Amino acid sequence: MKTDMSMTWVQYKENDDLEARDELIIHYAHLVKYVASRLAINLSSVVELDELISYGIEGLIDAIEKFDHKRNVKFETYAITRIRGSVIDGLRAMDWVPVSIRQKSKELEKVYCELESRLGRAASDAEVAAEMGITTQALSGLLREVAANTIISLDDFLPGEEGDARKKRVLDLLEDHKATDALELMELAEVKEILTRSISRLPDKEKTVVYLYYYEGLTLKEIGAVLQLSESRISQLHTKAILRLRGSLSKKKYIMV
User: Fold this and answer.
1) Are 89 and 73 in contact (CB under 8 A)?
2) What CATH class is the domain 6-94?
3) Where in the chain are the domains?
4) Cβ pair 88, 81 in contact under 8 A
5) Which site among 36, 40, 124, 145 is 20 to 30 Å from 63 CA-CA?
6) How far apart are CA 63 and CA 75, in angstroms?
């Protein structure tokens, strides 16, 4: 039976009751473990789950402080995006992904982008391997290496150069600060349209993995059970899907990492 937290929200938001805020944090803490556990699947063992949870708690607190309880928006949906963003920001600050892995990931993105632009369709593993002058077995190993660098959210950032003050999360434009300009709204619509087209061109299995992972909230293990494939195979499909999408979006200078 779900607990009605509406009065607790009123006590915190309208009466600035810190005990009510603490009650909200405790009540929604399970969301942090849920998000951290999902992200931990593709991460190296050097990153402890407890570290991810600590970053996630910061995101939960931020979500509680900024949430407008009077709007017809489900808090869990709003909070999960905030928590995930906070964990990913924490990982970026740690800079835990080796430079060599980042370089390999960028090289793969470039290959997918250029090859699929020439072919006009999704490239097969054999075609990607041939383009890189390696075997398909070596390509599989490369995909496993860069898997941890593909945990980003699909709508993580809008256009902008690194360090550009205009670079924002899509979520930030949805908060209605009464200051969102028309250009930013157009950019948001465009990035969603491009992303939708890019996903529609993915091979069927990769498209299914993206849908189940990002839209249905399944873990890679759960997706493997649905598709009757191993978790490592699902991880590879997820990695290839994200590399294809980033390669496609890079042509429009959409920064996703």
Assistant:
1) no
2) mainly alpha
3) 6-94, 99-250
4) no
5) 40
6) 8
